[in-house]
glutathione transferase
Amino acid sequence: MADEGKLTLYSYWRSSCAHRTRIVLNLKGLKYEYKAVNLLKGEQSDPEYEKINPMKYVPALLDGDTLIADSFAIALYLEEKYPEKPLLPQDLKLKALNLQIASIVCSSIQPLHNLVVLNYIEQKLGPEEKNTWFINLLNRGLAALEKLLKGCAGKYATGDEIRLADPFLASQIYVAIRRMQMDISSYPTLSRLYQVYEQIPAFQAALPENQPDAPSSS
Ligand SMILES: N[C@@H](CCC(=O)N[C@@H](CS)C(=O)NCC(=O)O)C(=O)O
């Protein structure tokens, strides 16, 4: 029997995809049970977890008897199911921009620095090549995002309301600044947004270092 109304998030503290999903859940004011899947221990490949996400990735969200795996799909599902505090604006042009930014993060940046890709590069070419790949990829992505936001950013990414683009940007900028220690001052809009996000409780609570499975030294 499905547990109606109960949300369970399969997450890993440092996963940027899980990070943005936690922000979306917090923005929607939704409480959820946190189930850690340790990617470094390979728990994503556990046959039991594979039943939850056949791609062997986090995040996955269980909402009653509805199971969704993929941060973009989860965000759109939550937007439809919980339309209060909308993340997608009515204005079609602005809506398209939000979808574009979310999709760029989800399909043109993050998949190219996924653990499975980085491990492969490290094995074949060594740790330096892995880092060079990672930083070049981030610079390419951040440069594109910075250009896209030119002239449309307000208090937040696409105006004065927090929208879908914001959790996707927050998680990706975090990877650049906190994980790869990049100086992103050449991307002034993204730098400013990062500081704005740092002040918002829904974003703070979703930070990797604030998750139950984060090591105490993070
Ligand atoms: N498109 C998926 C990608 C999910 C994904 O790549 N998750 C990463 C963490 S951010 C993962 O679980 N990687 C495990 C691995 O590469 O083995 C989404 O946005 O949720």
Observations:
- The pocket of glutathione is lined by residues 15-17, 39, 44, 57-59, 70-72, 106, 114-116 (CB under 6 Å).
- The mean pLDDT is 96.
